[in-house]
Amino acid sequence: MASVTLTFSAPLNVSCQVGDTAYFTATSTSGEFTTDGGAGLTEIGQIREVVNPTSNTPAIICDTSVASSEFGSSPFIAFGKDRSANTSSILGYYAETKFVCDDTSKAELFAINTSIFESSK
Asked: Which phi and psi (to 5°) does residue 69 adopt?
């Protein structure tokens, strides 16, 4: 399988690692905004090597069947984690709240809500 080297001009996200899947979308300028024109993400392939991730010129090397000419002149590159190896569970985080009403007249609490979700699945 062919490989492609993607070089960046800023340090990589600290979560980017070998085994992640890289994606791209070609971008264009529309007014003052950069957009993908609704094209969505295309899979590049699995990241095989991460080179100098904290430098100002890091690179990732991916196994791919996508021709680099398909990326366009300024593609947006993203990566995704392998769900079987990077699952998460509750780490013991909690929240504590204290409701105070300094008014001496009758007060009523209408509702309290919370939401919990897994962010790595």
From this structure: -65, -20
The separation between the first and the last C-alpha atoms of the chain, rounded to the nearest angstrom, is 28
pTM (two decimals): 0.65
Question: Rounded to an integer, what distance in angstroms lies between the CA atom of residue 39 and that of residue 86?
Answer: 28
59 vs 111, more confident: 59
* Cβ–Cβ < 8 Å for 67, 11: no
- CA-based diameter of the chain, in Å? 74
Of residues 6 and 87, which shows the higher confidence score? 6
**Which amino acid does the sequence have at 87?**
T
pLDDT higher at 117 or 16 = 16
Number of domains in the chain: 1
CA angle 77, 79, 82 (to 5 degrees): 165
Q: Tell me if 15 is assigned to some domain.
A: yes
- Going by C-alpha positions, the residue among 3, 5, 11 that lies closest to residue 60 is 5
